[in-house]
């Protein structure tokens, strides 16, 4: 019996391009395909700016708006269709790399709960809800709330 390798972050390769397009909102801390995407919704494509990593066949992770002076970044995670059960694990990898690999002190990101992002996976990765912006995003033909989640490296 062969052991299955644990998911890990790897550098982006052209062969991973399929992970960078999907039915999710751009710029989300945890972007999952909505259960019923709006009829006119188009897949979002990641532009590749900022350190970009993949978890083979599961997700991409990008650190955007990097501030090296204050050691903080916005995190974006996009899960491949069918990889929703790996959300907490992928977020944990992103947090570990952000703190230990990049030497950051604070990570944050936006979550649009109306799009189906599970708060329990975000919370399990160490993020806490910092603020809710009422009607902060247009989604599925209506304004929906948007949440700001953040976490700090332990000292």
**CATH domain fold name:** Aminopeptidase
Number of helices: 2
Low-confidence stretches: none
Mean pLDDT, all residues: 85
Which strand-content bin applies to the residues?
Answer: 35-45%
Shape: globular
**Helical content, roughly?**
10-25%
Order of strands across the main sheet: 1-4-5-6-7-9-8
Structural Rg: 15 Å
Which second-level CATH architecture applies? Answer: 3-Layer(aba) Sandwich
Biggest sheet statistics: 7 strands, mixed
- CATH level-1 class: Alpha Beta
So, the CATH homologous superfamily? Gcn5-related N-acetyltransferase (GNAT)
Count of DSSP E strands?
A: 9
Along the chain, the helix and strand elements come as EEEEEEHEHEE
Question: What this model shows, in words?
Answer:
The longest helix is centred in the middle third of the chain and has 15 residues, at 87-101. It is built from two helices and nine strands; from the N terminus they run ββββββαβαββ. The protein has helices at residues 87-101, 119-124, and strands at 9-11, 21-22, 44-45, 52-55, 59-67, 72-79, 106-111, 128-139, 142-152. By secondary structure, the protein is mainly beta. β5 and β6 form a beta hairpin. The chain starts with 8 loop residues before the first strand and ends with a strand. The model has no long low-confidence stretch (mean pLDDT 85). The protein has a single domain (9-36, 45-152), classed as 3-Layer(aba) Sandwich (Aminopeptidase). The strands form two sheets. Strands 1-4-5-6-7-9-8 form a seven-stranded mixed β-sheet. Strands 2-3 form a two-stranded antiparallel sheet.
């Amino acid at each position: 019996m062969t052991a299955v390798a644990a998911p890990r972050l790897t550098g982006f390769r052209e062969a991973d391009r399929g992970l960078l397009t999907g039915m999710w909102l751009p710029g989300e801390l945890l972007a999952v395909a909505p259960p019923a995407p709006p009829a006119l919704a188009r897949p979002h494509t990641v532009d590749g700016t900022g350190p970009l990593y993949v978890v083979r066949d599961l997700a991409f992770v990008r650190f955007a708006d990097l501030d090296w002076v204050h050691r903080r970044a916005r995190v974006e995670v996009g899960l491949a269709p069918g990889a929703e059960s790996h959300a907490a694990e992928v977020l944990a990898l992103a947090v570990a790399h952000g703190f230990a690999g990049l030497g950051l002190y604070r990570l944050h990101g936006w979550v649009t709960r109306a799009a189906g992002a599970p708060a329990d996976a975000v919370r399990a990765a160490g993020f806490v809800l910092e603020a809710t912006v009422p009607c902060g995003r247009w989604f599925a033909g209506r304004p929906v709330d948007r949440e700001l989640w953040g976490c700090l490296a332990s000292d």
